[in-house]
Hints:
This protein is α/β, with parallel strands linked by helices and 356 residues long. It has 14 helices and eight strands. The protein is 44% helix and 12% strand. The strands form two sheets. The protein has a four-stranded parallel sheet with strand order 2-1-3-4, with helices on both faces. The chain has a four-stranded parallel sheet with strand order 6-5-7-8, sandwiched between helices. α1 (5-13) crosses α8 (190-198) and α4 runs parallel beside α5. This is Benzoyl-CoA reductase/2-hydroxyglutaryl-CoA dehydratase subunit, BcrC/BadD/HgdB.
Amino acid sequence: MQVDPVLARAFSERADGARDTSVPLVGLFGEGVPLPLIAAMGGQGIDVKAPPLTDPEDGPMVDQVTRATEDFMDSFATRFLHRFADGAFDRYAALIFARDDVAGLAAYQYALELRRQGLVPARGPQLHLWNLLHTGSAPAMRFNRTELDRLIAMLSAVLGARLDLDRLAAALAAEERRAVALAALPPGGETAFVARNAGRWMTPEDHVARLEPPAREGADRRIALVGTACDIPVLHRLCAEFGTIVADLQDYGRIVPQPRTGEPLDMLRRIAGDPLCLRAAPPARFTRALREGTGDADLVIATVNRNDDALGWELPGLRMQVESRGGRFIDLGFLPFRPDAAWIDGARARVAEALS
């Protein structure tokens, strides 16, 4: 089944496809930033972590940025910094980086340093770090409320608007309608992946208008995907040869909870309470959610990127849990930022061998 052409274009062009100059743009790097809050203050949240599919790997500023970064940096952070230095986000009002995202923290720190060193112009979007504690204790909630107040103050300054509770209620309702439509999509499959993620570069109204559940993709074997961020459906195409994805717990694979009410503490509790956030505390919350999330899948396929410093520690225990209930677990190792044909062929051979 072909994906809707509007959704396909949004997925391909990504941040570069945001052409409406009447709405201030607010870039988001990482999960957990309250989208309804941005909309209620007159902006549109746009994912800037995943580069456009047509984005070149070189450009006028690449050499200069590369000299200021290290070879081991996450590819999402590096590609963002190349685009940042090249002026891709000059018209944005702000760029918000989620502390929960390892690549996002590095991107924020290096973007600040590029400005400090004068390697990029001082003009451009406000850079802001969104830092939540993912536990429900009273001290943590006080800290989180302070972070929310900081975010509101920053948005007010760059967007020139006060927080309007009626607009916030409307924005929350729009995101809830989108959540309902997304929940109707199957958890896996290339078409569903593209349709779901296209909304990162669309308003909820435009996104919902284009969403419709695609046909079932894949065979009868139930597959769960686990891994760090992957912004293209390369594993979904591969899995379609062996079964049906019933759970996708990768970043860009799952739906991250958004606030449902405008009461500040409720907004914070919903985002901070996400059990599949790697910074969830106590850590057992994440471990339990990861194991429950794979459900009774016949096959669990895991990948991490070379900068992973957290999820990989969970994989041995997850393997034991999956195999103890009779499932199969395949660790494909490091997933390249843009896997080539040789990597895909090798992954296909490993899955086929494990299932033979």
